[in-house]
Amino acid sequence: MSDTGVIKAELIAIIMALLCSDKSIRITICTDSQIIINQFSKINTLSIFAVQRLKLQYSGLAIKELLVTLQKVNAHDSDDHSNVVDKLAKKACSRAYLVIDPKLLAHNGTICWNHKPIERNITLMVKDIKETQYIKQFLMLNKNRYFTLPSDLESFNWSLTFRYIKDKFDDTSAFDSRFNSFKTKLRAEELSTQDNLCKQSPSVYTGNWRCALCNTELETYQYL
């Protein structure tokens, strides 16, 4: 196997080039390391969730939407791109070591999450983004499609609604125990009985449908 130090150095150079690149572009990288090409090809066939389970730092490509191709070239070949890189590497090696002033690490900057600037506490910012997704999930339900006016949305108890949507069944407080029982009751009442189907889709299920067994009583949750 080749020198691991050389492989790491070249891999760091590739990663830095990808981090400095623009978003949503096509990139072709020439390298003489077949090991890097093989590993990249293996990772490129996995899903982002599989890569995360393997603890591989590959999410940057997915976030920046890069289309990366690694092209194999012969080592020390008279390739124009290789000659330029070799020249820059030799020039950099002749310079003094780069020293980073620790004061620069404390410099105030703009923190971003998924390319969105975070203007306040990062934990609260991410929490608000997730709760916005919960609101979208709640309003996309077929039974909630008629909530369109701002006055309708203001009438919701959103803190209680979020607790209902988030499925926190691992909580053991007295409130959550009662609340989970209430959730079970609500979801039981959402069973696809004939009565509920008529309420949800009156254009499809018309009239008062009777129980399929007795054919006399309305098929409601209380009757079942």
- In this structure, how is the largest beta sheet organized? 2 strands, parallel
Structural class by SSE content = mainly alpha
Strand content: 5-15%
Unreliably modeled segments? none
End-to-end gap: 71 Å
- What is the percent of helical residues? 40-55%
The CATH architecture name of the domain at 4-105 reads 2-Layer Sandwich
Number of helices: 11
Note down, in words, how this protein is organized:
The protein has 224 residues and is mainly α. It has a domain at 4-105: Nucleotidyltransferase, domain 5. It contains eleven helices and four strands, in the order H-E-H-H-H-E-H-H-E-E-H-H-H-H-H. The strands form two sheets. Strands 1-2 form a two-stranded parallel ribbon. Strands 3-4 form a two-stranded antiparallel sheet. The chain is elongated and about 90 Å long. The model has no long low-confidence stretch (mean pLDDT 70).
Ordered list of secondary-structure elements with their pairings:
Elements: H1 4-19, E1 26-31, H2 34-44, H3 48-53, H4 59-64, E2 67-72, H5 80-93, H6 102-105, E3 112-113, E4 116-117, H7 122-139, H8 150-154, H9 158-165, H10 174-188, H11 194-200
